[in-house]
Design goal:
flat
Length: about 100
Amino acid sequence: MSGVTVFSSNGAIPIEDLGAFSMIFFIVCYCCISTWALLGLTIGKYLEHPIHYKIFNQAMGGLLALTVVYVFFISKYKANYSTGFNCYRKPGRSPFM
């Protein structure tokens, strides 16, 4: 439901568009979940040993932490840029122009 509301501008969606969106969304989600399940089965064979499992968990935790830091710094950079820190902007104009 949230996907439908994101793509609707005024909340009124023709039934054909809703059907097409739902079908595409179903196909994409089915492919993603199938891939996720197959990768889970495949990697399960390699994680039977406790040390491999520990290394995998540490690597995933490190990647997650790096992602959080990256997103934090990107959002800080964009926030500084959108507040008017652009020295090439003409006075009185919006920072988005």
